[in-house]
Amino acid sequence: MTGPAVILLGPMGAGKTSVGRELAARLDLPFEDLDALIVGAAGRSIPDLFATDGEDGFRALEASVLESALTASSGVLALGGGAVMHPDSRQRLRGGPIVLLEIDEPVAAERLGRGHGRPMLGGGEDPMPRWRELAAERGPVYRDLARWRVDAGHGTAAAVARAITDMM
Ligand code: S3P
Fold first, then answer.
1. pLDDT tens-place string over residues 50-69
2. Ligand 1 mean position to 12 CA, how many Å?
3. Which of 20, 90, 95, 130 shows the greatest Cβ crowding within 10 Å of its Cβ?
4. From the alpha carbon of 14, which atom of ligand 1 is closest?
């Protein structure tokens, strides 16, 4: 079979990158992070991509980098929180080995602080109203795509990774 062995999905602050690293180490597989692949492909940071190309430009690039990653990667792939919002990406992800990392709002608030480096959170004092809106809009999409769901709000990234391997 081609494509990633595990794909991690979930809102900003869920710990997709840190859990993904732990999970890849545990499974002895390579780890790939979609945001890092995008930055590598564009040679620019995510805030810079949003500033110059807007969200639509970012999503188009994200969808094309994801398409390549779904073919090229055979390890653990962590997505960005909005990667499921492009219809093409949603279709490509459907049926994949997808784990949803679930967190609640207080955990997100603690982890995200002011939301620095995450343009979707608006750059203001309090990123949580926007986080809440995005969580409400995307939650149903996440749950629809996920084959497994795990509580990613408690314990270390290693413990969450262990819970995932126990579940799969
Ligand atoms: C985004 C989430 C980010 C990154 C970009 C947009 C989103 O990834 O892809 O800032 O729309 O939720 P993380 O979920 O890893 O923070």
1. 999 999 999 999 999 999 99
2. 6
3. 20
4. 14
- Number of independent structural domains in the chain: 1
Residues at the annotated binding site for ATP? 13-18, 118
Residue 35, ligand 1, Cβ within 6 A = yes
Residues of the domain holding 85: 6-167
Residue 54 sits in a domain of what CATH number?
3.40.50.300
Rounded to an integer, what distance in angstroms lies between the CA atom of residue 158 and that of residue 18?
Answer: 8
The single residue listed with the structure tokens 């732990």 is 22
Ligand 1 pocket check for 80: Cβ under 6 Å = yes
Write the residue with the smallest CA distance to atom 9 of ligand 1.
80
CB distance 82 to ligand 1 below 6 Å = yes
CA-proximal residue: ligand 1, atom 12 (nearest): 81
DSSP characters for 72-139? H--SEEEPPTTTTSSHHHHHHHTTS-EEEEE--HHHHHHHHTT-TT-GGGTTSS--HHHHHHHHHHHH
Task: Enter the pTM of the model.
Answer: 0.97
Whether 1 is covered by a domain: the verdict is no
